[in-house]
Amino acid sequence: MIFSVFQGQNYARLTRRKGLTAMAILICLAILPAGARAQNNSQPPANPNQQEAPPEAGGPQNDVGPYVIPKKKDEPPPPAPEKPKKIDNMPDYSIKVDVPLVTLDVLVTTKDGQTIPGLKQDNFKIFEDGQEQKISAFNQTQAPITAVLLVEYAATNLQYMYDALNASYTFANGLRKDDWVAVVAYDMKPKILVDFTQDKRAVMGALNMLRIPGFRERNLFDAVFDTIDRIDRIEGKKYIILVSSGADTFSKLTYDQILKKVKSTRDTTIYAVSVGWQWREYLDAHGMAGGMREVGWLQNDNQLNTFAKLTGGRAYFPRFEGELPEIFQQVSADIRNQYTIAYHPTNAKLDGTYRKLKVELQAPDGGPLKVHDQKGKDVKTIVYAREGYTAKHTVD
Q: CB–CB of 307/272 below 8 Å?
C-alpha cells in the first residue's frame, strides 16, 4: 500500500513536468517572428487577396495525436432479434409471485436455564395469529455470532460505570475467533468505539477507551433505535448485547416509538444485562431508596425485559459480580444452540400489519412434549422466540 501511494505521487510529478514542457513549446512558437516561421515552410506564400476556406465542422478528422478518434467502419447493422413466437391461448402478460418467508430462531431451555438439544422438526408447532403454519425448513445452528455490544457509560456514579465495564469485559473474554463484534457506548448519544471486527484485542482496546464519561444523560431509546437501524442493513442473524441500567433520561424518541422499532426488526435478538444492582442494594439498606426511586427501577427493569422478550432474547439482573461469567456463558450457549425454523405464512399479504407468533412443543404422537432429567423426573421447559413480526416489503 505504501509503495502504491508513493508510486502515484511520482506519476503525478512526472505528468506535471510533461505538461510544463508542452506548454513551453507552445509559448515559444507563439512569440517567434513571422519571418522565422515562414522560412521553415517550404510552400509558396499564399495570395493575400485569397480568402481561406472555413474549417470543417466535427472536430479532428484524423486518427493520430493525443486524442485518437477511431474512424467509423462502414459495417452492416446487426440483424434484429427474432420476435418470439406467440403460443396459442397464452395471454400477453407475465405474472410475478412474491412469496414471503418467515425465519424464526427458537431457544428451548429447562426451568434452570439449561438448553435442550436434539429436538426435531416434528417437535415444533408454529402459530401465526392463531393459525398453525407448515414448517418448510428446520435446522439447529451452532455458528459464529454477529453482535453489537451496546454499553451504557454515563457520568452517573462509579458503581454503574464499574458494573458496565466489568460486564463488557466478561462478554469480550468469551468471544471466539470467528465471531464478529462491534462496540458502541452511549450516554447522550451512541458512539461507535470499534466497528465489526474479529480481533478480540480491538474489542478490548475499545473498552479501554471508556474511562471518563462525557454526560449524565442515558438516552437508551435513541441508542437502541440507532443500533437496530444500522445492523438491519447486515444480512443474516444479529444480536445486541445490551449492558444498561434500563434508564432513559433524555431521548428524542418515546417508549411507544422504540417499541415499534423493536417489533419491526426480524433478524435481531436483544440480550439485556442490567447494571447498578449493588448501588440499589446500598441505597435500600441505608433507607435512601424511596418510593419514586423504586418505581423508576421497576420501570427500567421492565424496559429491558420488554426489549429482550419481543425479540426472542432474555434479560438478566445480576446482583453480584460473580454472576456475570455464568450469565454470559448462558448467553453464548443460547446464541450458539438455537433452532432455526422457516415457513411461508398462509397470510401472504405484506400490508405492514403486526403478526403475533406462538411456538409450542409437541411429542411425535401429537401430545405435549415431556422432558425428563437424569433421575427420570419431569422437567419444565421454556420456549424463547420472538412474539411477532411486521409483514412488510424488505428494501435492499
A: yes
What is d(CA 217, CA 155) in angstroms, rounded to the nearest whole number?
Answer: 8
pLDDT for res 54: 47
- pLDDT on residue 21: 46
CA distance 226 to 252: 12
Least confident of 85-89, 111-115, 236-240, 277-281: 85-89
Strand partners, 343: 102, 135
Alpha helices (H) in the chain, listed in sequence order:
2-31, 34-39, 158-173, 200-208, 220-231, 255-264, 277-285, 291-311, 324-336
Query: DSSP character for 209?
Result: T
Query: Quick check: pTM over 0.70?
Result: no
What domains can be seen in the chain, in order of their start residue?
A: 102-140+340-390 (no CATH), 143-336 (3.40.50.410)
Q: Are 318 and 281 in contact (CB under 8 A)?
A: no
For 366-385, what is each residue's pLDDT tens digit? 888 888 877 778 888 888 88
